[in-house]
Amino acid sequence: MTTADQTVLYQRKSTYIPRIGAVHDLCGYGKCSLGVAIPVLSAAGCDVCPVPTGLFSAHTKFPVFHMHDTTPMLEPYLDAWDQEGIVLDGVYSGFLGAAEQVASIQRLYDTHERALRFVDPVMGDGGQMYPTYTPELCQAMASLVDGADLLTPNLTEASILTGIAYEGQDVSDEYVSTMMDALIQMGAKVVVLKGVTRGDGKIRNYVGGRDMERAEVAADLLPFMLHGTGDLFASALIAAVMCGKDVLAATDFAGRTVTRAMGITRVQPDFELRGVSFEPVLGDVCALLR
After folding, report:
1. Mapped to the 3 state alphabet, what secondary structure does the chain carry?
2. pLDDT by residue (tens digit) across 238-265?
3. pTM exceeds 0.90, yes or no
């Protein structure tokens, strides 16, 4: 059995630019989804190819937002990719607009069999589903767990995926183990379970897998919540993985990146609604290539 600091999912060649298909929504205002994934992965020297699952005027924490469902365009969109002979090194999926969109992700898996499968099952937080989600969409999202090379749920999303009751953020190591074991039994190869807090000023993320010893990675917990931090965490984690970092180092990097970005965000106007200001930490992502 290996440890998390021995598990390397991607061997980076110094002159090669890996290509990532990013299956996420796009928001006109508010820091999340493709608005985070594209710059963060680009800073890590990746070619990011977006597959937009929905177009939003602003993210769903705003009291008023307009959503355009892109499901009807996805098949011809991917048809055109196939005709161009595009080859992907990774498929990174996040927020989905409809249950039918899972078929487009599965199509990418079938077309790009060697691509790593990064699944951030964006469905909710704080024990609640996001307002645009339905039980059918959550059930479809669960089908992506099987075969995921890297799965990054928070506690709410892990509860939805496994059917294990959500018990808040302050949970025991035994609860964490039960949740992670269930996700691994569902087919995930490596799981990063996010967001355990125990009142000591730290936020804990847990890393484990089929043939990997479980490890805990802690970062400083700031006393406020921000929209888009989950997207930043997943994107920074994948960025580090695609730069050849082991899973433990990548998880630690992602946690520190989010904490630093949140500290910067706190002094911005309307920061609690607008979302995490990741732009000043992109230099840290670039440094992964050195």
Report:
1. CECHHHCCCCCCCCCCCCEEEEEEEEEEECCCCHHHHHHHHHHCCCEEEEEEEEEEEECCCCCCCCEEECHHHHHHHHHHHHHHCCCCCEEEECCCCCHHHHHHHHHHHHHCCCCEEEECCCCEECCEECCCCCHHHHHHHHCCCCCCCEECCEHHHHHHHHCCCCCCCCCCHHHHHHHHHHHHHCCCCEEEEEEEECCCCEEEEEEEECCEEEEEEEEECCCCCCCCHHHHHHHHHHHHHHCCCCHHHHHHHHHHHHHHHHHHHCCCCCHHHHCCCCHHHHHHHHHHHC
2. 999 999 999 999 999 999 999 999 999 9
3. yes
